[in-house]
Amino acid sequence: MNLNYVESDKAWQVCCRDEAWELIPDPRPTKGGKHIPKRRNFKKKPDALLYMDYIRQQKLNLHISLSPSEKIEYKKVTDMLKDAKIETTLIDIVSEYIRHRPIKTDKTVGQCYDEFIAWYAERVEKGITKKKTHKSIQRCRPALEPFFDRNISDFENPMVAKELANHIRSHWGKLDPSSLDKGFSTTKTFLGWCKKREYLSKQPLHDGLTEVDGLKKNEAVNVLTPDEARRILHVAQQTDDRLGMLTYWIINLLVGTRPGEIEALDWKNINIDDEGDEFIFIGDGKTARPRRIELDDFPTVVKWLRLCDRTKPIYPPDFYNRRTKLLKQSGLFSDKPTTEERNRCKNIGRHSVATYLRIGGASQHTIATRVGNSVPVLEQHYQNNARRKSEAKEYFIIEPLNLDENIVKFGGIAS
């Protein structure tokens, strides 16, 4: 504490910034018991000296009331603030903490992760969640493993949250932006689950920490040409006895249904025998909203479906190996498929159907119902495309091959 005459103010200034000023009440009645300021000016020196005596007395009272351990703790805290060059008061820091008080739990990150995975497994057993979703959600484990022994509430600390985000970038950043985005997404799913369980008070990985450069969310989607779609369908028709993928590719390429939705599909949800009332009912979609896809205006799709062997599963076992073999035979995959080739064929059926329906003049409602996307998503991905109307017309009238040896089974009866 020191006393100086400030010429510009023509006043005596008492500076006590190096003292425990935030613990000393202001003697002025108008201040309502608030702490004294770091600096205070007086027109008369005696008033300033009197004020300094008051502070010394309060300091004496303060130090008398503090135990030795409390004094040590107080000195340690004030030194930490000084070393960190943080010019704020202990009262302000405590007030800020109270406002944003983190949830305290005795659970570690590892314990929460095990509980999270067990919860997903239980949902799979009940048929609420698909097995592949349970498997893919475990992608967040490498992101969380270095933090397994730490308390889950540590993620409330912005510095720890940043540490987590940086670790995710170092782990997945070597791959493509899409992989990094999925790493962030699955980890945020886990942290969101923790928030719902009240293990966290907020989502630690905010958008500012998880921004991914080079992510092509708004880029035009990959679309098959009518000739490429024709090759896939004809190869599927020719190899159906061996690969059993004809029904899958018809529904994927000509209806635009997601692979996961096709996996849950059964022939009882496909009505192609009542002329004038042909439809496919998707009861377990990604959006969790059942939808009925009308096929009345797409007779070629119905014609294709009537070729299918209804004794075979729509989504065959060993799906990915069969899919790879078929795409190789169709010419879309090389003998050793590249990442570019695999990425091009992701969601290729839904993208192609939505694009050609839009170019062909279908309403947004029709397209949204058909492929299971919201209107904003349609506008984001399918607004602009270089495909022509003639291609859209050709795409939906691809005819099956006329195979003399083709014998189609309906419920085990040859026809």
- The whole-number mean of residue pLDDT values reads 83
Helix proportion range: 40-55%
Largest sheet: 3 strands, antiparallel
Spans with pLDDT under 50 lasting ≥5 residues? 405-415
State the order of secondary-structure elements, H for helix, E for strand. EEEHHHHHHHHHHHHHEEEHHHHHHHEE
Number of helices: 20
Q: How many strand elements?
A: 8
Which descriptor suits the 3D outline? elongated
The rounded distance between the terminal residues' Cα atoms is 103 Å
Q: Supply the helix-strand structural class.
A: mainly alpha
The percent range for strand residues is: 5-15%
Rg is 34 Å
User: Strand order of the main beta sheet, please?
Assistant: 1-2-3
Commentary on this structure:
- The protein has 415 residues and is mainly alpha-helical.
- Helix content is 50%, strand content 7%.
- It is built from 20 helices and eight strands.
- It has helices at 45-65, 68-83, 90-99, 109-125, 131-137, 141-144, 158-172, 177-196, 207-210, 226-238, 240-243, 246-255, 259-263, 299-305, 319-330, 339-344, 348-359, 364-371, 375-382, 389-395, and strands at residues 2-6, 11-15, 39-42, 270-271, 279-282, 291-294, 409-410, 413-414.
- The strands form three sheets. Strands 1-2-3 form a three-stranded antiparallel sheet, covered by helices on one side. It has a three-stranded antiparallel sheet with strand order 4-5-6, with no helix packed on it. The protein has a two-stranded antiparallel ribbon with strand order 7-8.
- Helix 17 (348-359) runs antiparallel to helix 18 (364-371).
- The longest helix has 21 residues, at 45-65.
- The radius of gyration is 34 Å and the shape is elongated.
- The N and C termini lie far apart (103 Å).
- Mean pLDDT is 83; it is low at 405-415.
